[in-house]
Design a protein that fits this description.
11% of the residues lie in helices and 29% in strands. A hairpin with a 2-residue loop joins β4 and β5. It has 255 residues and is mostly beta strands. It is built from four helices and eleven strands; from the N terminus they run ααβββββαββββββα. The chain has a domain of 113 residues.
């Protein structure tokens, strides 16, 4: 409905409400028709142009996160290196090589260390427990009326020690004086004796199984109680001397 239609409806309501019993009177002349001008609604405020919503702010640039470190893996210890098996020894060996290898030790079997020495060409052995020391030759004081094997008396750091020639003692030739000549000092129960020998070689380990009895072997002098037995080492025969019997031998001739 426009404004003109609203005015017409309002006039129609006023005319219908007038009283019908009033004396007839000359009806007033209707007012001159006035052209109705369209009533327009007062101009409202000009709608503001629609504003577009600003674009959402861009999210702040995020710094790339460093990759997470890989979980530490505990190093497993390397398995111990298995030693390479030693090459097997040749089965065929010379007699001399077999003689150097001591036989397997039996339960309760005794082993002893022997000092290997020489008088001339013969090899002898003395048990290391009876040896006090090995010294260089020293000036000897001759003794009148002594046994032929007694070379003289030696001053060993203030102690007088009788020295015998082991070659003459065992019925062989006298020991020659060379740079290799040594004096082996024996000691047992307070008794001391020096043995003049051609040379001292080394210490050998001899078990009871390697010792042959002097009375059963053809290589040992028959009836010589100074020989305890024989041992075969490195293909050579070693005569094992009894140090106790050497210490108890008489050094002076009877008058």
């Amino acid at each position: 409905m426009n404004a003109a239609e609203v005015v017409d409806d309002y006039l129609g309501v006023l005319l219908s409400a007038a009283p019908t019993s009033a004396p007839a009177a000359a009806a007033p002349a209707p007012p001159p028709a006035v052209a109705a001008t369209p009533v327009t609604a007062p101009p409202g405020p000009t709608p503001a142009p629609a504003q577009t919503a600003p674009p959402p702010p861009a999210p702040p640039a995020t710094r790339p996160r460093p990759p997470a470190p890989a979980p530490a893996v505990r190093a497993q210890p390397a398995p111990p290196a298995t030693p390479a098996p030693a090459p097997a020894a040749p089965r065929v060996a010379s007699a001399a090589a077999r003689a150097d290898i001591p036989p397997p030790r039996r339960s309760g079997e005794r082993q002893a260390r022997w000092l290997r020495l020489r008088c001339g060409s013969q090899i002898y052995g003395l048990e290391l427990l009876k040896i006090r020391e090995v010294v260089l030759p020293a000036p000897l004081l001759p003794v009148r009326g002594a046994s032929p094997c007694l070379a003289g008396l030696m001053n060993l750091r203030g102690q007088v020690v009788p020295v015998i020639d082991l070659g003459l003692q065992l019925g062989d030739t006298a020991v020659e004086d060379t740079p290799a000549t040594r004096i082996v000092v024996l000691e047992e129960h307070g008794d001391t004796l020096g043995l003049r020998v051609s040379t001292v070689e080394d210490v050998a380990v001899v078990s009871d199984a390697q010792i042959e009895g002097a009375h059963t072997s053809r290589l040992a002098p028959v009836g010589d109680h100074r020989i305890r037995g024989i041992a075969r080492l490195g293909g050579a025969v070693m005569l094992l001397l009894d140090a106790s019997r050497l210490l108890s031998m008489p050094l002076y001739t009877a008058r």
